[in-house]
Amino acid sequence: MMYSNYGPSLVKTIKERCRVCYTCVRECPAKAIRVAGGQAEVIAERCIGCGNCTRVCSQQAKAVLNSMKAVKALLASDAPVAACLAPSFPAEFTEYSHRVLAGRLRAMGFARVVETSFGADLVAAEYKKLVAENGGRPYISTACPAIVSYVEKYFPHLIAFLAPVLSPMGAAALVVKKLYGEGMRVVFIGPCIAKKNEAKRIADIVAVDAVLTFSELRMLLEEAAGADGSGALAPEADFDPPHPRLGTIFPLGGGLLQAAAIERDLIANKVISTEGNRNFVEVIRDFDASPRGVELLDILCCEGCVMGPGMTTTEARFARHERVSAYARLCFRERDQFEWDDAILDWSSLSLACSFEADDRRLDAPPPGVIRAILERMGKRSREDELNCGACGYETCVEHAVAIHKGFAETEMCLPYAVDKFKENAKELSVSYRQLEEAQAALIQSEKLASMGQLAAGIAHEINNPLGVILLYAHLLFDRAASGSEHRDDLKMIVEQADRCKTIVGGLLNFARKNKAVLQRADLAELVGRCVKAAKSSASLAVEFENPDEPVHADVDPEQMMQVFINLFTNAIEAMPRGGTLRVRTSRANGEVSIRVSDSGVGIPSENQKKIFEPFYTTKQMGKGTGLGLAVTYGIIKMHRGNIEVESNADPEQGPTGTTFVVTLPVRQEEA
Ligand code: ADP
Ligand code: MG
Predict the structure, then answer these.
(1) Cα 652 to ligand 1 centroid, rounded to whole Å
(2) For residues 184 and 290, what is the distance between their CA atoms, to the nearest angstrom?
(3) pTM of the model as a whole
(4) Which listed site, 41, 183, 397, 539, has its alpha carbon 20 to 30 Å from 365?
């Protein structure tokens, strides 16, 4: 095809500029923008070329297919080239007259400069005939190529209603070729992006060799003017005939109707005229649902071509309208009515027929289950959760879900969902922050404990010697006191309490001492047995003791190990004030020896199980416990590369109460 320089996509996203605000998604009437991987991109086959996305993008992240190179090549070639200027030009080229513009175009190399509006005059006449002759049959106007594309893609079943008439561009191109020779190349220049695709669509009827936007023409004019502007000093010139009349107002909403003298009778309401990207979608949808006796739908995608995306002017719609109207008035004043009548008559036999092809791009509805699942993924579990806020660019949550299903959209585009996720993350963050705080507090606590231990050990060390002296003399005095003497009971009390002090001081010293285990080969089973015998027993206490038949040798510090078992047995017995059973079982397996110490005592509530190894943790009454037994035990076992675990039940409703400590120690290498 000769238009191969036109890529498949009229509009492309400049990735570095896109900030993914979804404005283009929202403003695209064809839903032809895909957001994937945090990037918005135009889907070429869905795009109708309306250029809305280029207009609404605040980041100028949408680039329109550039035709400047193609036009320069045409002008540089031997073939004569005609410029077909769209009737909205007065709204764009406000700084000089049409004569200056025509002169500069000629200077650029265009052999002819004609007004597309004459084509519009012919098209208007065709519409007048169409509506008059086909009474009752509804038509959708086809002057706007974006509207044609929209119907072909999204309402393909309505293409029979598209007015089978070329657009003013096509009509003007036909006239130019017939009048100035088939060899004349045609460049259409207008405010429209969709025309770049229309040229391809009508290629079989008439060749429009390139389509320039006004913005592109401006750039070419600037280039031609040169740095010193000398190129801009072209002599003024008039447009080439045929000259237009009412076709000049085609770019205004309702312009076609006035040019065709079709009455828009609001009471009969057979002619609907509207423009703008929201209105046209609504009108076509409405028409599809019920044509209601409408005879002509006159619709423009932009708010009139004067608001087209291929313009640089920033003037308001009203001002642009006035510029076009003023030019129309000028034409009426200066052009010859009879000359126009003759021209129209001359060209009245020119066929402007054209046809359209369905290009169905409708999204077929995915199964409801799929949509439900996608909605649920976005936290929309019920109808009330579907806010239809439109922040994602889609009108409804369901439309958004369908787009997600088709791969056009992402769940993250849902604002309420994103906010929820953000809140969740913030919550998670605050949880980990709290955990960090707790860990910090625990660290401070353990440091406190360590320094407390040091202090306690220092004091214990100082007290130990004088306490020894007190004990010695107390024992001496007690031994000397005759039985029945009045001091004997008092002395007994002193001896007992001093003994307790000795135990506590001993415990503190043990806890704080940087112990070093002196390992030697010992039979652990025998060692445990000795400690069991030493454990104080009472009538209400049953002791069950189970040992393997042969000795269990391990490298341990026997004295420290005995301390471990004594501590465990003492605790067990103290947990059974009203009697019970103490079970001790030593066994060997997998290179380890394990000693299970079970009691049927009160048990340890699960919330306390973590704390029992902490120094000074005790639940025993003042003077009874030091809270150092298990701390010392733990230290010794760790020094022996062993392990200690606890299982306990303190709740009678959960079964019999009691506690089991399991100590595991590695056995001697050569025996393993
Ligand atoms: P102390 O015996 O001086 O209180 P320990 O370090 O030996 O200190 O024990 C700490 C705490 O662990 C005890 O106060 C007790 O609450 C709990 N505990 C230890 N062993 C048992 C057990 N066999 N049954 C129930 N509680 C126990
Ligand atoms: Mg204890």
Answers:
(1) 19
(2) 45
(3) 0.66
(4) 41
